[in-house]
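Worked example

This section walks through a single chain of length 495. The input is the sequence exactly as stored; nothing has been trimmed or padded.
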Amino acid sequence: MSDQLPALQIMVTLLAAPLCVIIRHARGAWALAMAANTVAFVVAILLLLQVLDTGVIRYAVGGWAAPSGIEYYIDTMNAAVLVLVSGISALVLLYAFKSVEKSIPHAKHYLFYSAWMMCITGLLGIVITGDAFNVFVFLEISSLATYTLISFGSDRRALTASFNYLVLGSVGASFILIGIGFLYAATGTLNMVDLAQRIPDSESQRSVLVAFSFITIGVLIKSAVFPLHAWLPNAYTHAPVAVTAFLAGTATKVSLYVLLRFFFSIFGKDYSFGQLLLSGVLLPAAVAGFVLMSLVAMFQNDLRRMLAYSSVAQIGYIVAGFSLASQSGLTAGIVHIINHGIVKTSLFMAVGCILYRVGHAHTPSLDSLIRRMPFTSVAFIVSGLGLIGVPLTVGFVSKFTLIGAAMERGWWLVAGLVLISSLMAVVYIGRVIEVLLFRRARDSGPEPSGMREAPVSMLLPLYVLLAAGLYFGINGGATLEVAGQAAAQLLGGYQ
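Given that input, the structure is written out below as tokens.
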């Protein structure tokens, strides 16, 4: 059975999607989706342990050996991302049981969970596949499911946000497909390992350059890297909050994984950052992103929109780490993929708890919420401190590593701007904490009805993520070791 784990990683959730539609029962569909996602999470953990123990796994789908057949390729990098994506999805699904009941009509629940299963299938497929064309196929599966999930939002603006994402997402996917087509024309193969070997000797270097350009732009759109982030704020704000929590911790992280895989494993560091001087494009965009988007987040009164702009800023930190093109820079970027996934998911889950009881996420109206919702407020505060990068949180591990990597390269200005943007995070997160803890309620009368703590089924997964964030913040070496090994493998190319 252990030999078939790569196939199980995809098949379990893929089969669950149509079964949710066949069941056509809200709780039954949720239970099936939860069971399938839990199996996927367990499989991802087993794959990570196997990779750390024995090295890279190459699985020939259907017994057809690469490069003629499709293969799944699993190393430390994508094994860690598989664990992150499947784990966050499982926790948010548990959280969604109550959240979805209040925000989505009961008759549509089975469709919602079916779309969720298709989305997680696509995301896991993007990460595990070793075939460039299948990256596009799984990307479209996850994207179409994501557009559907966003459209389930109760606000009519969710449809507009979904449509805008569809347009920009389709542009990004088209660029990626065109780039893959040029790669095939230049090399005659779609297998990623084979591509990495053939690109340097290709007689069509102009086609390779065109492919690189198209793929870069497409992946940057999908990753919401500044200034190609226009789809993200509205999508995160108007989607059902469980969907936002899920996407914030998984979708952009998978796109960033694709960026890593193409830049370092397929084209190679020397080509991407040597001949083409990619750092000269990525680094300014990343720095502008984490500075300007932090500034924009400071002026938002809606918690979801504030955290959405914050997500674009955090993506900037990750891309800045990649731009350094060094062992320490890559390690910083990879560890922040993991850490930001944990922190931002827990923040959106806390906001969802507030929405569930209060009915809105307008910051100035959440006076002294800690008296009414103490567990939710504490969770938001601790996660917010992680986003800022306070010591003993995962955010501190990421930012400390990134600043050290920038200083190692002599890029003192970048290190200083990381600190400045972190101070901006102190402002917008601190403003919310001040309202939750200290601002006196306008109404000194009896407590408004419904203003009580969120259900246990929503708090439990939130606190599991909170505990994970604190554990990996205190024991930062656990994630740094995995990230460092993944960075070394990426810099060394395909085995």
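What to look for: The radius of gyration is 22 Å.
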